[in-house]
Amino acid sequence: MTPDVRDRAERPPRIDFSNGAAGAIPESAWDRTLRLIGKADEIALACHVTPDGDALGSMLAVAFVLRSMGKRVVASFGDRHFAVPRLLRFLPGQEMLVPPAEYPAAPELLITFDTSTFERLGLLSDNAARAREVVVVDHHPSNAGFGTLGLIDATAAATAVLAEELIYRLGGRLDRDIATCLYAGLVTDTGSFRHSSTTPAVHEMASRLVATGLRTDEIARELWDRSPFAYLKVLAAALDRATLEDGLVWTYITRVDRAAYGLPYAELEGIIDIVRRTDEAEVAVVLKEDDQGSWQVSTRSKGTVDVGAACAALGGGGHHNAAGYTSHDSVEDTMTAFRRQLRKA
User: Fold this and answer.
1) What's the domain range around 250?
2) 136 and 38 share a domain?
3) Structural contact between residues 131 and 110, judged by C-beta atoms closer than 8 angstroms
4) Quick one: 72 and 205 in the same domain?
5) pTM for this structure?
6) Which regions of the chain are under pLDDT 50?
7) In what order do the strands lie in the sheet with 109-113?
């Protein structure tokens, strides 16, 4: 009798983890992580502010497994206006989320996901600084290992790749909820399998996740094919002021632009992927003014220029082809500083 999808999904995968997901994480780090988790009664999880699919999906996937082990789990992200971005509200497990005010002040064990610095934890950065142990699960090259223990692999296509390995090492197995969270992370950070980070191992992971019975079309619709009408109006304003200069295309979106149509900041995430299509530009930049008046700078490269290095020099970080940082200067001064770093990169 042919096994059904659930039977296949529940079987432990035949994956050799003897050298880590991509060989970058030593066995001693995995072993110590498992010991810390095994001893902890309560585990605090955190991801970066304004979470994307990889950050929130990886965190919730691991939260499911920890809860199944009998652990008390509390998960959060440090946004002042705490709310799951609309595009990610389909993810299961959000009942485990608490606002920053309800997060443990000094956790015994805190595990961060997709976060390269303390600062990216936002309101939870002080909680992390007071934690006894901080395990950092991340794939950003700019991550210098800010916690007490790092599961950091810059060659991993997404933090979800490392989250999946952690789940298996904990003895967990995939179900549809866990797979949905991990798949959201995988497709987000591989650009729906379009980025150069999409390796055979990425497709093998996707196969394991889809085998649980995922509706990949529904996930794609939630992530990329939905937006409020106000988004079109704000997008039009951003495209109208787009500037092309010496292989660089850039634009900006103000709080006033969004307020005119009642569009939340979190809805701006995908605009950079429209701007970056410009044939004449190697680098794309979108400046997005957040609710506090700071500029969140998103950058993309088609491969020749290392925008990760440029953003790291300006206090941010990311990857060679996708990175960002925060600026408190004017639009003009922000772009002047970025151009200067771009020339160095």
Assistant:
1) 229-344
2) yes
3) yes
4) yes
5) 0.86
6) 1-22
7) 72-77, 42-47, 109-113, 133-138, 149-152
